[in-house]
Amino acid sequence: MSVARDALWASGHDESVEVNQRALIDKVLARYSGEFTVFRELLQNSDDAQATAVEIHFDTQAFIDKTEEQSESASSKMLPDLKTTVVHRWSFKNNGIIFRDEDWNRLKKIAEGNPDEEKIGAFGVEQWMGFYWKDKKDQLFARRGQLPSSDGDRSPWTTFEMALREPAPIPVAFDFTRFLTSSITFMNYLSEVSLFLDDKCLARLKKTPGIPKELGLPKGLQTSTSSGIMSVKDIKCIPLHIQAEVMQWVYTSGTEKKRPLSSLKPKSGTGGFFSSLFGFAGSSTPQRQSTPLPPAKDIDPHTINETSVALSIFSANVDVRLNKKVAGELHRSTKKNPPNKLKYELIYTAKDEYDASKREEEQQPATIGSIFQGLRADLEGSGATRIFIGHATGQTTGIGGHMAARFIPTVERESIDLMDRNVAIWNKELLFVGGFLARAAYEMELNSVKSHWEGAVPLGLPATSVDEQLETWLRSRSLHALRFFTFHQSTPSAEVSLHLEKAFFDCGGTYFPLISTAGVRNASDVRLPDPVFSPFLKQLPVLPEDILTGASGTIATLQGRGLIKSIGFEDVLKELRSRPLTEEEMLACLKWWIGVNKEASKFQNTARTQFLNAAILSIGKPGSDEEKIIPLSSVRSFINNRTASAVIPLDSPLPDHLLPSSIAKHFPPDDLAVSFPWTELTVPEWLAHICSIPVRKVNADVDITLSPSWAERVLMIVAKAWPNLPGSAKAEIYIQLRALACIPTSAGMKTPDQSYFAQANIFNDLPVVTLPSGAAIKGPLERVLVALGVRKHVDLQVVFNRMIKTNEWTVADLAKYLVSVQSTLSPEEWARLKMTAAFSKEEASKEAGQKVTRYQAQQLYEPVDVLRNLGLPIMDWGRQTKWRSSSDEAKFLFELGLLRYPPLPVLINLCASADSNVFSTPDWATMGFLVTPVSVQIDAITKLKIKQHPPTAMIVDLLERTPPKDQAEARAWFAVLGSRVSDFTPHELQRMSQLKIVPIPSKDDTLRWLEPNRCYFGGDAQGKFHSKLFVFVSFGLLANGFLTACGTKHEPSVEEVVQILLEDPHRFYASAEGPAQFLAELRNIAVNYKLIKSGTIARMKRAAILLGSKRQPRKGGEKQDSDDVDEEDWEVQYDLRKAEEIIIADDTHALQAFGDSFFTAPQEDILEAFYSQLGSRRLSSLVKEEYQPSAEIKQSKIAAETRALILERLPLFLHEHSHARTRVSYTWLTSQVNFVVKTFGKLAVKKSLIFGDLRLSRQQDASAVASRTGNTGPINLWIAGNAQIDMYEVAISLNRLIFDAPRANDALLFMTILSTDLKALKRRGYNVDRILRQQRAERQAIEKAKSESATLLSKPPLVNVESPMSPPSNSPMTPFSPPSAPPVPIISKPPKGRQNNDTSASNLIPPTTPSNPPPTPSRNPLALFRRKSGLIPPTELSPQIPPVTSKSPITPNTNSHVTPLKHISSNIDMAIKACRPESGNLLRNRQEMRQVQESLDEGYCDVSGRVGDLNLIGG
């Protein structure tokens, strides 16, 4: 073969390759599409020639004519319009090195360029304007000649003169001046540029560099690139001053309007200045913003405007060490050796310089701006800063300043070349140097800020103690630096800013200086601001808010790199250990701790101990005698202003372990008790403190045994707290005060048992309690004194000795006194009083001179006429006081034994002589009826014809006339009546149900009587809530039976509860004391809804009785998007509303979007159904969704895979989902027509809510939505191609269409099944064996096919099997259908619509064998990932997507055969015959069975043949 080729080469002949030079140059020039390209090249060449000055002249034809005629006439003072005046020639002059022979020779060689590596022209295709087309052909010629000799000195100027082919206006003078201003910035030699139109100097620019300042290298920065090719040796800062003198005439030539960078496009081919030069037009390079026309002003256009700008140029000297291979490749690409040393420069405009430039620009007309606008820092990231390779390129830096270096550009010099492998190495190394230089400039600026800050901190004060004005200035400088070095996306190559940003952060490691509230610190020591911590963390370095908002991009980058963090627990401990907190700071600190303590898992007891040991409270003015330091670790108690301890006076002696009230009053007591190991200071503990000997010795004014006024105050405090104190606390108080002389009396300070109440003052010499303030002793104070042992009565023996024996008191007076003190009598005194002969009888006292005989109370009868007429001994009650049997005195005497009826013999005589209402049953005596004594024999009762029970009519009259006077009497009466309920007629029971006979105690200790039918029996369950709405009583079993017969119910009915609710819903809610009990009542009403009358239900629908809740942002916070807000930022509001005003929240997404605009029902099934019955509507019925998809992505593999995954996992979900009815069947869904999945570029969902006066809408992006047209249309699932599929959105979208009433948990379950590995599902109990076996068989087939694919190149033949082959049909397969065989490979893609739909049972596909080549795996990364993780089987093997067409060739199966149908039928018949009733509790499997070949591939069949027993566990 090689010989033939050599022979052919030898027999041929040579022909030259011709180049159409005109076409080549036109195409090359077309790549130079930037504005002012010619002048950019000439300026660069001038700088390479070490020129210091350049002049650019534009000449009109009139000026050319005058010049040629050497006219000396003065120029006209009338200035033409710069926008319309056309020129015929321009010239470019520089005073650089004069052309040498090698320069002239190089001019004639295209693409060779300047071989000097120190020249910028080294890395581009140079274009010299010394050519012409000879004879108007396509060959380019250059002509060189000698200038005529002159007698004068030789001119230092080298002139390039160009006559225009077509006259055209000059470039926009103002924009051209701006171009020149930015062009000379990075020039090495060129320092002055002048611009002329004819003989008028339009502008003159002069650059004056200052003295370079050596800055050194910041410590800790990586100065070399990772490859070691480039290393920064030193950095200098060069101040630069540019002076401009511009005619006012130039300002009249601004462009028509501003053009944003993004809207700049190549210019059209209309004629312009450069079109007359090259014959083409256009600009693809984004240029700086053009200036609109200024407003017309009466200003002399000849006026010269002088302006200037000051810049700082950071310059890095870089050493370059390239290996030979890379250096050779770069030489090949650039035709010169790369430099060993180079400079990298960055323009950094400091804050003061930036502000000065803005002020200078503000002095210009608003529509014009400054000619230095392109040099000012670009803090907004608008893309105005460029990469300079001598001149500006089209590549932006992404930061706020320009950069200049020896980058290698693309051919058109519009961007940096990052495509060529070796050139990219050079450029990326330079980008690292640029990032390093930017970081160095940033750190130097921050170091300057740091030195100013630290110098301003007063000695001995924290770093936060800086003058406010100075701090503002330093922070503004730091913010300016952060904004300057914020990396925005660069254009046209975004990689430039990415490489610069990476070097900027990577070269400094983990150190990054950042301004904070405590000065410049390392970013790792600075914390993000948090309003929760700011009130008490004063010395912690925190990022100022203006820095966070003003430099959000850089701060976000620092967060992403982990260099700046949020405030943590250790930060709090560090500051708490460093200083005590003031009261305001401690309040904020404790508030924070209580908040985080509610998160039980966040802080444990160890953390709480650390917190308490670190926190110290300072009260009073620091440094003064009033200052008090309180470590929180010493605090053990606090005063609860909501309990009995609230009465403790704060000006009294208080324990040292007490939390100051100025702190405690701001917190709920429960929060203090839960969040800290503190307990409430109780009144007994306070008393123990003030009664202790050390406290009493300090000041006599607070000694309870010496100061009556202090003792009175203490007793008053105890009295206020007494009703709310538990029994144990009262006992402690008694123990503490019983032995102290703490009671002020008329005889001085006495112990409680030595003191008497005023009502006991029956003698003049008793020590009676007397308060210094003269306050009356009553209510709680009286109860306190009684509990302490103050006596209400005088000892009985004293009374008997002093009064009775002196005959100074009558029996009525004695009884009255004894009644007043009876509650204080001990049992022993009661027994002694009964046995004391202290009472006289009637008539005996009237005998003059005779000593009065005294009797015991049990020896006398009550003074009534009935007994008096019988001649019985009657107690002498006297005439001054009328005897009343129901009086307290009479009751007291009855208890002492005073007789109310005569003995049996007398009764017998009385009964025999006259009719009397006497009854034989003793129980009736309780109700005031006369009864026979127990000792009376039954036969005597019979003989006397005494009735056992009073008539029922008499009982009813008695109850109506005299109801029970108290609850004790009612209990006794009702118990008696309860045993005789059957004796009453229905009419009498109905009458008694309406009598007010049930005594009910009121809050003011009085009684009121209610009808039995208005009372209820209740236990503890109802006592807590219903007792506030209804009256509950219980008088014992028998008594309750009587009340039941009279209409008392066991509990209020649902109808009655609803009536109370309808009567006053707000009172009902207030009685419930919160939503929990109220909802419990609504839940009870809902359960018993059918028991409510229809009329009541109608009232319920119209009344505001239902509880609704609504989320609202907490006060003081900014309202944010509800999707981004933590739950802690919301608070729940409750209100009673009508059913039609409340929405049932059955749509979670809609609730999140609109939940703050309406009230929702409680999310419980029973309450939602109840609200719905009363008229509440469901949220899903009110929210309408509109889907806004972008363009559809045809033949999306993601759509096919998602559909296969859903149909594969749906049976598992349906098996678990049994509580709701499905709208469609699984078989219906498996059809390609009924369930369609499509992929769109982007999906948006607009949710609209119309409810009453509400008109709300929200729009958001979605990854998946589902819709259906009507009830019979197909279900369409749309997924977004621009985002990862959210399986939760897939699940919740499908659930709405598959089920009648889906629940929120259904979507979570379906999402779990869709997104969980099959093996993991199996471990959780899902039946996924079939799918796992299918995947295992497919993997084995693919591996076998791969091993044979290396030897098989020909197309496998189609082989017929026992029955005709049928491709998979479009009919869907259910999980219980026989699985199809894996697909065979196809050589070419079959045409659409050619699949065979024959799905008869006789058409079987043989199982895959190792001889079947595997299908080509999908290249979709999402599909590959899901197959590896087991989320879905390979798409090609999915039973839902038929992979084989009618044209698919089938490889024969040589290792197995299809099981005959008769064998399968035989197995089925055998199984049917084997079925029989089982009498035992064991079922045994067969140990042998005939193998069905297809079961080896997949299916639910258990083919293991294992022996196992089934145990009967229930039946």
Explain what the structure shows.
The protein is an alpha+beta fold and 1515 residues long. 34% of the residues lie in helices and 15% in strands. The protein has 51 helices and 42 strands. The strands form 14 sheets. Strands 1, 2, 5, 6, 7, 8, 9, 10, 11, 12, 13 and 14 form a 12-stranded mixed sheet that branches. A 4-stranded mixed sheet has the order 35-36-40-39. Strands 32-31-33 form a 3-stranded parallel sheet. A hairpin with a 2-residue loop joins strand 6 and strand 7. The chain starts with a helix and ends with a strand. About 12% of the residues have low confidence.
Question: Quick recap of the structure?
Answer:
With 1515 residues, this protein is of the alpha+beta class. It is elongated.
